[in-house]
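call fold(seq) -> tokens
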Amino acid sequence: MTAIPMTPAQTTALPEARAWPFEEARRLIQRLDKMPGGKDKTVLFETGYGPSGLPHIGTFGEVARTTMVRRAFEVLTEGKVKTRLLCFSDDMDGMRKVPDNVPQQDMLREHLHKPLTRVPDPFGEYESFGHHNNAMLRRFLDTFGFEYEFASATDYYTSGRFDEILLRAAQRYQAIMDIMLPTLGEERQATYSCFLPISPSTGRVLYVPMKNVDAQRGEITFADDDGSDVTLPVTGGNVKLQWKPDFGARWAALGVDFEMYGKDHMSNTVVYDGICKALGGKPPEHFVYELFLDENGEKISKSKGNGITIDEWLTYASPESLALYMFQKPKSAKKLHFDVIPRAVDEYLQFLNGYPKQDGKQQLDNPVWHIHSGAPPAPELPITFGLLLNLVSVSNAENKDVLWGFLRRYSPGATPEANPILDRLSNYAIRYFNDFVKPSKKFRAPDDVERDALAALDSALAALPSCADADAIQNALLDVARAIPRYQDHTKKSPSGGPGVKLEWFQAIYETLLGQERGPRLGTFIALYGISEMRALIGKALTGSLATLAAVS
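ret:
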């Protein structure tokens, strides 16, 4: 069990913490209070995974969010209750279709309906497709430093660890069927069985009715693929349970205390719970989260490969930004595509920068407390990902050494060693800019009013000292705009009592100088980029070279 550091202020404020992991942890504590000997048991957190395709980001989300609840529980119980996190892979499930995003499609079709751990690995790296996908999942989880135990359904079924619950399922077969049959259509009822035998002749997972279930002997009889009647024991890996009964049976067999799953499972909760109870278990506490959607609003899928993979996110942003995305509003549907990455990075930095200034309760409700298990790193320079993206754009930086030249001038003493977060962000910014921002950049030439405004801005910047800070530069920008009727906002007042400034002024700068519709706070950006460099950029816009260059490229 990992010790969670707590300050005296946090310990005092703990009863008032309202972040959702604490709320879920409190429900789990109430569960233990009602169980005989509950406080003496090791609390089991579980996440389930179907390795029918390459793991996607939603799978990571289950483990990340469950870990957050686990850590909150350990703090609330002062570390006096042992906990485990079991990541369970249903790798004995039959491969019902070939994923779209893997090689050797024709070869895989020859093995349809076989258990995933008996399907050859199309990548040629592991003993089976199931083992390959399990290895990918574990590598992803290890990247994030999760503390977990991995479990394979194939291992549990074949090693005998599920034999007791399978024999009990045979003894209580009718009780399980009474739960399942009302949830099925008439045609499916006629062929349904909670047991799925593995065909001795073809190795396929069979969806066939049972001709007999011998509760005393723990055996089932069914028609094999070749038409012959076969009798097999339910133990020893000869059969597996249908996925809904498997959910409830696993809870009963392992004594699971907490499991979360997606909204697409919510209607089955009563079924899972009912089967768990029928097999003598106590259903765990549930947490139902909303689904992730791709840019088209469609559910992300392992077989389709839509949305973002974990590797793709980590190419362009930090693990912490992904963890923040998982923490925020877990019960709201969220689109998961590349456009969300910069905002997630900057929101993480904002929460991290605010953490040292907060009181104990605010820190416990701050996402970075949960992302870093109570020990977030110290904040660094107040440089956003958006600023870095724009700096990459105007400096034509191909490597982070160019960016560090600007960063050192902006903050003397800053180094990659002293600012590791910023150093990593520099790499991410270059990759993200080249792949997603650069292809869509489009400079436009300024019109007559904008030309005069930019010329006035050039003069205003020239009047500032080279070391002017962001606020001084921002004020100069506003002063230029206040003198131009197009940019005057008479619904607002400036500190001097004159008109405010319309956003149109800043948008004109973004479109003519940065080649985009939106951008950073310009005072901060110019302080980082440099006044002389910004004046040179204005000169290029006034001569038309920026728009001409964009047209040529």
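The chain has three domains: 8-293, 385-440, 448-552.
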